[in-house]
Amino acid sequence: MLLEFKKMIIVIIGAFLTALGMNLFLIPANVYSSGFTGVAQLLSKVLTDYTPFHLSIGYLLFILNIPVAILAWKKVGKSFTIYSSISVALSSLFLELIPVKQMSHDILLNAVFGGVIIAVGVGITLKWGASTGGLDIIAMVLSRMKDKPIGSYMFALNSIIILTAGYLYGWEKALYTLVFLYTSTRVIDTIHTRYSKLTAFIITKKADEMKKAIHAKLVRGITMIPAKGAFSNETREMLMIVITRYELFDLERVIKDVDPNAFTNIVQTTDVYGFFRRD
After folding, report:
1. Backbone angles phi, psi at 200, to 5 degrees
2. Is 30 helix (H, G, I), strand (E, B) or coil?
3. Higher per-residue confidence, 155 vs 70
4. In this structure, are residues 259 and 205 in contact, taking their beta carbons and an 8 Å threshold?
5. Which residues does residue 20 pair with via DSSP β-bridges, in sequence order?
6. How many other C-beta atoms are found inside a 10 Å radius of the C-beta of residue 196?
């Protein structure tokens, strides 16, 4: 119960920081965010400027995330989807409640500070096993279904945002959007992890319990390797499992619950060949 409460607090803080970075830095400077937030921001601007209709960014963000939330509910799991949906709903709410106010007239400062603030919100949310919706949910779904690199999808969507913004509102704005993307990516990588795939080596005396608990939580295969302590000469089992960055929180919780004394080494994985899932 305490863990769930902490997770909810983190989701609220993450959503608030995302909306704060948008309304105080990016939106006043016409610098565009990444992912579904950037799509909502661009759509809202285009509708206002080129049609008689106006839809707020918060409202559009909520609408865009409905289909991926349904997909996540079916393919990923209830807990992840619920927290991600709460994050999206709160971000949409905070975008409506926080007034749009220009903190600086320097576009570069807006891009950098907006990127840092939003990235902190996204990073801590990811670190606690939730997401801010949009491409994060799509990444999780793809990681559960097949070994598909999410980077190409992110690159494609962000390229569309940048090119459209540059064509309609000037290429200078598009270049500052690139500054935001670089800044936010670096900060998220620092808080969470920059690697899309990770390999965990878990040495434990409770190998069977650990294996069952991991299989109940994650759709991943596990390799059991006999191990022996050089100092103690005790025989143990080492579990090797490859996961995505989105599953790290769940794995850490399982290890802590089953065997807090287990020795775990998490290393980056450059690539994986073969089946990257458990049928």
Report:
1. -110, 130
2. coil
3. 70
4. yes
5. none
6. 17
144-158 residue pLDDT tens: 666 555 556 667 777
Report the domain count for the chain.
Answer: 2
Tell whether 279 is covered by a domain.
Answer: no
Nearest-CA neighbor of 14 among 139, 122, 95?
A: 122
pTM of the model: 0.75
Say which CATH number the domain at 210 has.
3.30.70.120
Q: How far is CA 118 from CA 14, 21, 129, 238, in A?
A: 8, 5, 17, 38
Mean pLDDT across 110-114 = 92
CA distance linking residue 134 with residue 77, whole number of Å: 16
- Given 157, 191, 225, which residue is the final one in a domain? 191
Helix or strand run (H / E) with residue 186: helix 171-191
Report which of 260, 247, 263 is spatially closest to residue 215, judged by C-alpha positions.
247
Q: Is the four-CA dihedral 54, 115, 178, 108 of positive or negative sign?
A: positive
The answer to whether residues 229 and 273 touch, using CB atoms and an 8 Å cutoff, is no
3-state secondary structure 99-130: CCCCCCCCHHHHHHHHHHHHHHHHHHHHHCCC
Structure tokens at 163: 């090119």
Give the tens place of pLDDT for each residue, 94-106: 999 999 998 888 9
